[in-house]
Write a structure and sequence with these properties.
The protein is of the alpha+beta class and 362 residues long. It contains 13 helices and 10 strands.
């Protein structure tokens, strides 16, 4: 007869009776990790809108992150583990996959995708490698051109500063160098012509400014502002060269190109004609400026000043007779600028010719 053992009940009682210190401690919950990095294409250009997918099997995405406009991406809330990281240039079009990417609890993993590295470039088919080389050559040329443009922009800024300080020789020297570097730029020819006007080299200025207008007009995207500015300076060069019809035509062209600034161009014309002592042309330009903007006072003064030069004096009575429109021009100036810089002069002339200033006193 087999004797039944009492060993199992005793062992079971022993396990139940073990103190808690002998039990296995529970594993604390692991905190998620993070990932970040930068993505650039084989030409070393940032890739915005690319996707980085993390998967456990290399196929099924568990997490997906998208690069921003700078080609940077960040991701958080990732369960710790080892992942496949797959780069997608567009959804569904994988570009590169990196294996064994560790995501550690409470840590931020850096993972860049640099498609310019030999590890990726050498994996491309020959035709794609050739296309990549051509792209990189174009990019290098573009970078060189951009550097040249930046240099020209610096020269242009310096020349404009020199013009502002009336250092016309310095400005002209800079722009001579600039147009040699970029002879197809109307803006550079415009600035050169402006400096030459300041130098009083009017024939040279006329040549440069015409060049600016011709180049801009022939470009794919002509700039009315550039051509108007060139015509404005051209008008000054012509006016100071006593070529009055050409000067008027240049200012008219500027006003037609940018009608919103017509008053300014005609005002400049009136000033140039007045300085040169061309009274009839001053009156004509002042009338155009007044028509463009009747609220500005100076054109009325310039008109009155040009007309008073034609006043006659009666040798017997010494009475001054001003041409028609003279008193009205001075009076309009006073109406608009009663304390303006020419107010005293305008009042004196009106008093001498018996104008309406005294009649309008309040």
């Amino acid at each position: 007869m087999r004797v039944k053992s009492n060993l199992w009940p005793a062992l079971f009682s022993l396990l139940i009776a073990l103190p808690p210190a002998f039990a296995q401690a529970p594993t604390p919950a692991q905190q998620p990790g993070k990932i970040h990095g930068h993505v650039q294409d084989p030409a070393k250009t940032a890739m915005p809108g690319a996707q980085i997918q993390l998967s456990l099997d290399g196929k099924t995405a568990k997490y997906t992150f998208t690069t921003d406009a700078n080609g940077d991406y960040t991701g958080s809330g990732i369960a710790p583990g080892t992942y496949f990281a797959t780069l997608f240039q567009t959804p569904g079009k994988s570009v590169w996959q990196i294996k064994d990417v560790p995501i550690v609890s409470n840590q931020d993993t850096l993972l860049n995708f640099d498609l310019s590295l030999p590890a990726y470039v050498n994996s491309l088919p020959p035709d794609q490698r050739k296309a990549l080389e051509e792209t990189m050559q174009k990019n290098a040329a573009a970078i060189k051109e951009n550097q040249g443009i930046a240099h020209l922009n610096t020269m242009l800024k310096e020349a404009r500063d020199d013009d502002h300080q009336k250092k016309y020789d310095d400005a002209a020297t800079l722009m001579q160098q600039a147009v040699q570097l970029r002879p197809d730029s109307p803006l550079l020819w415009l600035e050169l012509g402006t400096a030459q006007v300041g130098q009083k080299k009017y024939d040279d200025a006329i040549t440069s400014l015409k060049k600016a207008i011709e180049i801009d007009a022939a470009s794919k995207t002509p700039s009315p502002e550039v051509e108007a500015a060139a015509n404005n300076s051209l008008g000054e060069a012509y006016g100071n060269s006593n070529k009055l019809p050409e000067a008027a035509a240049a200012y008219d062209a500027a006003a037609k190109l940018v009608p919103a600034s017509a008053h300014m161009y005609y005002f400049n014309e009136a000033v140039i004609m007045s300085r040169a002592g061309h009274n009839d042309e001053t009156v004509a330009a002042a009338d155009k400026a007044i028509a463009a903007d009747p609220t500005k006072p100076i054109p009325y003064y310039l008109k009155g000043q040009a007309l008073i030069a034609k006043a006659t004096v009666d040798p017997k009575t010494q009475k001054i007779t001003a041409p028609p429109g003279c008193a009205e021009a001075y009076q309009k100036y006073l109406d608009l600028a009663p304390t303006g810089q020419f107010a005293s002069e305008a009042k004196q002339i009106l008093a001498q010719i018996g104008g309406g200033s005294s009649k309008r006193k309040k």
